[in-house]
Amino acid sequence: MEVPADFASAKAGLRPKIWARGTLDLAALQHEIQGQEFANLPLKPLGSHMYYSLVYDTEHAMQSISCEQLDEWGVSFEQAFDVAVVNLEESTSAIAQIGDHFFAPATGDNYDSARVMQIDRIEGLDTPGECVAMVAERDGLYITGSRDETGLKLMVSLTDQASENARPICPVPLVLTEDGWQDWIPPANHVLRSEFDRLEVFFLAGLYNQQKPLLDELLDADVDDYAFVASFSAIQLNESGAIRSYCVWGEDVISLLPRTQIIVFMGEDGTLASGEWSHVQSVVGELMYEEEEHYPPRYRVIEFPAAEQLEQIGFTEGFGPD
DSSP string covering 100-128, please? Predict the structure, then answer.
C-alpha cells in the first residue's frame, strides 16, 4: 500500500495505534543480534509497557507511519497525531456501559484500544475516584474508577479472558493524572491487590522469558560486556497465597537482574538475605546500575553486598535462609 506523498491527502486515513512495548523492543533486539536495522517509528510511551504511534489506514490495509514519512510530509508527530485522534473521535460510535461505573468502547473497528487516547471523552465518564483504564487487547479497553470495587473486579475478569486472545496488549492498568496516563496499582491493603499483582507478574514473566535467550545470545558474542542473565521467577507463598516474583543475586557473579518484587542473595552456603526491591535499593542501590537500553528493565550488578549490608536487608516472608 502506498502512503500518500503529501500530508493533506493522507490526513483522512491517519489513526492512532497502541503497541505492546515488548512486541517492538524484543523485535528490535532480535534485529540487533542479526545485524539488521529495525523500523524507525515515532514511538511515544504510554505507561511503562506500551507505546502509542501512528498508522495510515484504508479499508484494505494498515501501514505504520515512520519518522522518515513525517519528515517527508513536513509535519511533527504531535501535529499528525492530533489529526489521528480527531479522526478516531469521528468514528467512535459507542462506549458501552456495564453497571454504574464500568465502560468499554464498542466500535469494533480494531481501534478500541487506541480510544484510551480520547482523554476528553474519558474524563466525562462517571468513574468514582481516579479514572483507571486497562488496555487489555486490540479490541478491548476497559475503564472504571479506582474506588469502584465491582468495576475493578470486572476489569480483572475481562483482562484474564483477553490474555487468551490473539492480540493481547497489556494487563497493567493506567490511571489518568494531570500529566496523562501513568501506571497504576491498587494500594497494598486493597481487596483486589493480589489479583492485579498476579496479572502483572505473569505478564512480566512472559516478557522476561522471551528476553533472556536473546540477551544470552547477544552477550555471549561480546566478551568485554558479558554478564549472567538472571531469570525472572515466581512463587506462590504458602501463608498468604500471594504470588511473588523474585530473582537471584549470586555472589561473585556479574549479572543482569530482572526487575522483580523480591531479590534473593545467594552465596555458597545458601540464601544469605532477601528483601523487597525498594528495600534492597535503599541499602545497596549504589551497586545496581539500570541498563536503560533494555526492556523489560535489567540492572547490572558487579559487586556483592558486604556482610553488614546483607544483615541490614534481612529476610522477607517466604524467602528465608535454607
Answer: TTEEEE---SS-TGGGGG-HHHHHTS--S
DSSP string of 56-88?
Answer: EE-SS-EEEPPHHHHHHHT--HHHHHHHHHHHH
Q: Are 155 and 173 in contact (CB under 8 A)?
A: yes
pTM: 0.93
pLDDT of residue 279: 97
What CA–CA distance (Å, rounded) separates 83 from 70?
A: 13
- Find residue 68's DSSP bridge partners: none
Which pLDDT does position 58 carry in this prediction? Answer: 82
Q: Answer whether 152's CB lies under 8 Å from 132's CB.
A: yes
Contacts of 189 (CB under 8 A, 6+ apart): none
Domain ranges, ordered by start, for the chain: 7-90, 95-184, 207-313
Compute the distance between CA of residue 162 and CA of residue 168 in angstroms, rounded to an integer. 6
Phi first, then psi: what are they for 126, rounded to 5°?
-85, 95
Q: Which of 27-31, 37-41, 58-62, 294-298 has the lowest mean pLDDT?
A: 58-62
- Give, as one character, the DSSP assignment of residue 6: S
Is 24 strand, coil or helix? helix
Q: List, for residues 87-129, the tens digit of each pLDDT value.
A: 999 988 778 999 999 999 988 888 999 999 999 999 999 999 9
- Interval 198-247: pLDDT, tens: 999 999 999 999 999 999 999 886 656 788 999 999 998 877 778 999 99
Beta-strand pair 255-258/228-229: parallel
Q: Where are the alpha helices (H) located in the chain, listed in sequence order?
A: 7-10, 21-33, 67-73, 77-90, 119-123, 149-162, 193-220, 277-284, 307-313
Task: Report how far apart, in Å, the C-alpha atoms of 147 and of each of 91, 99, 126, 143 are.
Answer: 31, 14, 12, 12
Query: Taking Cα atoms as reference points, which of 58, 47, 41 lies closest to residue 20?
Result: 47
Query: What is the rounded CA–CA span in Å between residue 261 and residue 245?
Result: 5
- Cα 218 from Cα 225, distance rounded (Å): 10
Distance CA 137, CA 159 (A): 8
